[in-house]
Write a structure and sequence with these properties.
Number of helices: 0
Number of domains: 1
Number of strands: 11
Strand content: over 45%
Helix content: under 10%
Distance between the termini: 41 Å
CATH topology: Immunoglobulin-like
Largest sheet: 5 strands, mixed
């Protein structure tokens, strides 16, 4: 069964940013279950017909302890990293990351991104 989560807090990027961001799934994983692979990473406008200039590379499983884009800890193999770049100031986006876990479950994570010039 697929699960979905909308992250509680958006993270903010600058229009000229090109950086790797971490997306944590730890709260959705049962004890001993990890992320095996990333199926897709897709960016959409938060508002129908909104700006779609923000891009994100296909994600990769984070293989060592890390932190997410809000400063929260991500345990090894419980998160995904993706390079997020560009965007239009004042626009809001969703980044949808789909992963497959070590027990073959598919989990969809939806993360809000706000692009701001200051």
């Amino acid at each position: 069964m697929a699960q979905a989560v909308l992250a509680d807090d958006p993270f903010v990027v600058h229009p000229s940013d090109i950086r790797v961001h971490g997306f944590g799934f730890g709260e959705l994983l049962a004890s001993g279950i990890t992320i095996s692979s990333v199926t897709s990473t897709v960016v959409t406008a938060k508002v129908s017909g909104g700006d779609t200039t923000l891009t994100a590379t296909s994600g990769a499983v984070i293989s060592s302890e890390s932190i997410d884009s809000l400063g929260n800890a991500i345990a090894a193999n419980e998160g995904v990293s993706a390079t997020v770049k560009l965007g239009t100031a004042g626009s809001d986006y969703y980044i949808t990351v789909i992963v497959v876990t070590s027990d073959s479950e598919t989990i969809t994570g939806v993360f809000e991104v706000q692009c701001r010039s200051s």
